[in-house]
Amino acid sequence: MIKLQNVNKIYTINKNNTITALKNINLEIKQGELIILKGASGSGKSTILSLLAALSKPTTGEVIVDNKKLSKLPDNFAALYRRENIGFIFQKYNLITNLSVKENILLPLIPQNLEDKILEDKLNLVINRFNISHKKDILVRNLSGGEQQRVAIARAMVNDPKIIIADEPTANLDEKLSSDFCNVLKELKKLNKTIIVATHDPIFFNLDFVDKIIDINNGSLS
Amino acid sequence: MILNTEVLTIFILNILFLFFASIAFYLSIKIYLKWDINSTTTTQYTLEKQSVLTATIIKYIFALKLPLFLFFIFTLDNLSNLITGAMCAAGVVDATPYGTYLFILKILNIYIFGFWLVLHNLDTKDETLKYTKIKFGLFIFIFLFLLAEIILESIMFNAIDISKMVSCCGVIYSSTSTSLISYIFTLSNTTIILIFYGNFILLYIFYILKKQYLFSLFNLFFLIVSIISLIAFFGTYIYELPTHHCPFCYLQRDYYYVGYFIYILLFTGTFNGLLVGFLNTNNKNYFKSSLLFNTLFVLLVSFYPIFYYMKNGVWL
Amino acid sequence: MLKNKINLHLIQFAINSILRQKSKNTFIVIIFIILTFLLSSVFFITNSIKYELNLTVNSLPQILVQKVKAGKSYDIDISMIDDILAIDGVSNASSRVWGYYYFKNLDAYFTIMGLDMYEIQYKNTLSNIINNFDLEKTSQTQTMVVGAGVKRLLEKGYYLGNYFNFIKPNGTIKKMDIIGTFDSSTNLESNDLIIMSKQNARDIFLINENKATDIVVSVKNPEEISTISQKIQTLYPNTKIITNDDIKLSYETIFNYKSGIFLTLFIICLFTFFIIIYDKVSGLTGDEKKEIGILKAIGWTSDDILKEKFYEGFIVSFIAYIIGIIFALVFVYIFQAPLLRDIFEGYSTLKTTFELPFIIDFQTLALVFFLSVPIYIAATIIPSWRVATLEADEVLR
Asked: Looking at the structure, do residues B143 and B267 belong to the same domain, yes or no?
């Protein structure tokens, strides 16, 4: 259960220059819901996602996930929270291009000091589900856009997070791949994951398994 | 003045420590004064980042202090070759009025730094970071201790005059010595053994009864009692000589460096034991760890008199 | 306690990271290797020379009695020997006739030692020489036995025949024939030594029959050396008495002094090193920042990143440390440390041809370690911290 209460986010560029990214946002998302955040670039979608993933803190207001106040978390604990609960699929994938597919996917697990067997299991689970096991040892920079996206999704899923956040996931994909992605979302919804997608791609607006579409414009919700 | 390579190395590292510890000191003051976990200002976020730096510096200093202490003892041992009359580190320590104090201060500092690190570990596991302010306030004092140690060390090495005769450990650690040490020898061997083993058994009893404060306190006693027993009784069996009491000589190669083992076991055991009294969480691990190391220590030192008796049929 | 803390995967990632940033790391590694190489070479050289010197010192007389006049050593009366022999604990006392002969053409000094066959020698090498060569002849004739280094030098000075013309202090010439060449157990010894009968030596240096250069005393129990030398001093207050230990101590002091100067200069190197490393590690490219941002975004804590950076630093510095030591070993013991060892030797031209004995001890390795790896790690503390506390949000925008 995710709640944003009276959230404002203001970026200070310098003393006289500030940008208000979010104005007085109030939002509630229930567990297992698939939410689409609809809005143009610069409308504040990415900022909301960033707050939900505890990647940044609100200037005022609260971000509460399962009764836990994210904004009070010190840096290290925010990272731990992300590690355990969030699977983030970035717009530009943000993979480490000089590492292989396998290494990228396992990245979130490295600090946890798990046994090799467990790592192997977790890896195989996601790598098979998202169909990139045949490219396991290939460097990411040698993959196509679609393949890179599948790696990004696999990495986001390797820790089996409760909440999945995707930022403009179909921006660089063609029709077929975009449709594939929607199928992935459908599967994830069946697993009772809470999913938040920020996008202005119309393909999402007509999906039947979407619970809510929220419009965001200039930092405020309509 | 000694321009010995080992001493110079210690100096260089001390300067390094001083430099970084001063940064940590400055930051600790800032954090202690301004820390407010509930604040959302940039100042607080900067402080949080700086607390990571301070903790890293302190970890670095501590991680180096341990091997450096062993190196320090080794250096003292080597210096004994240069100073007339000194046969082992004891002579070097005694060469200046600062030696003994420096030694005790160094050991004390290792304990204190160790405590700080344990506190730090607890702190980082807590989401509200409730120990942070105390932790850094504590460091402000620790820094002063560190400063004292470095200054004292510099003074001591500076003051060593190789042409001045020093007493060898046979004289220092005997009943004819004029210092406090001579009092140790007024006790009979039986008394010492009783107190030593008695203290040890008490530790086990307190563990079973789960009396954490008593356990901790008696660990402190055990540390003192052990050192006295080593000097008065066990040492003689390691050397197989009833008049050789020196606590430094068995750090040398001739005795297979057993001194290092003895002291490491004792210090680790009592350190963990002392922790038990200060912390309320995760006590069990420290209890067990303390008992383990203390037991190993007791076994190791007891081995020598028993072995001697078995070999020779008599006590010294 | 520590069992959980060693994360093999993190270490693997660190190694991988190091390999991915080859250019930056190669530069650091090279500088570091040079540093440890220099440092260990100097330590190895001094250790070896010290060892050689100690061997020599041990073969020196236990007690040396010299007569001193106006601060300079003078010919000593042989009659003192009887009094010294009477002291309890003295096993032998004999006179030595020896001196330095300056060969102007080659700017070299020979040591001339007068030996008589029937006397007990205080040094094994000298006894060996007496046994191996027929010095009987030398007492009657003007013949001598020379060390290998002398032979070489004489050949250089165009003395190709087996003889040499000594010029006595009064200007006259004394021709001596060479009847043999020897080597000795310590290289520092044989190089400039010439052995002849005491009579010939006295003649070359114009020393009187009842005088000698100095008196060497051997003592039955080495522990009593200082007591006996005090007794001799009381007997003859205007002599200078040098014991074995005095010499050892003065060598040790000189070495400490020279090493100390070297180290003090070295501190400047260390400081520069520190700055270079700090600078290099600080400079983060956009890509590197992005990578850290990604790691944080997927759940790495600042502590995890710090730990990884520490592993990187430690692995790089430790490997460079080992390589530096290996290079130093090769340089000093296989190539015999050209250039560098002259700084520490400072003897005349003749004495530089000995071979450095292979000495390696834990203490030297520890010294080099403490003077290099912790400095490197220290230099990386602040840069690593800056990296680890980057805001993921800002970097990924």
From this structure: no
The whole domain housing B19 covers 5-167
Answer whether residue C67 shows pLDDT above 60. Answer: yes
pLDDT digits (tens, 9 = 90+) for C358-385: 888 888 899 899 988 998 999 889 888 9
H or E element in which residue A198 lies: strand A194-199
What are phi and psi for residue C95, nearest 5 degrees? -90, 150
On chain A, the residues whose CB falls within 8 A of the CB of B49 are 75
What are the tens digits of pLDDT across the range A161-199?
A: 999 999 888 887 888 888 888 888 888 888 888 999 998
Examine the fold and report which residue of B139, B167, B195 is the final residue of a domain before the chain moves on. B167
Superfamily (CATH H level) for A2-221: P-loop containing nucleotide triphosphate hydrolases (3.40.50.300)
**Yes or no, beta carbons of B37 and A59 under 8 Å apart:** no
ipTM: 0.89
Is C385 within 8 Å of C291 (Cβ atoms)?
A: no
Yes or no, beta carbons of C302 and A82 under 8 Å apart? no
Same domain, B231 and B259: yes
Chains that touch A (3 or more CB pairs under 8 A): B, C
Indicate whether B177 and B297 sit together in one domain: yes
Contact C298 A108 (CB under 8 A): yes
CB C141 within 8 A of CB C176: no
- Contact partners for chain C, using 3 or more CB pairs closer than 8 A, are A, B
B138 in the same domain as B13? yes
Q: What is the pLDDT of residues C332-347, one digit of tens each?
A: 888 887 777 766 665 4
Which positions in chain B touch C388 (Cβ < 8 Å)? 52
Chain B residues near residue A18 by CB distance under 8 angstroms: none
Q: Which chain C residue shows the shortest CA-CA distance from A76?
A: C301
Where are the alpha helices (H) located in A2-136, listed in sequence order? 45-52, 75-85, 101-106, 116-129
Mean of the pLDDT values across residues C234-257?
81
Q: Looking at chain A, which residue has its C-alpha nearest residue C302?
A: A76
For A107, the closest of C295, C391, C396 (CB atoms) is C295
Q: Which residues contact A128 (CB under 8 A, 6 or more apart)?
A: none
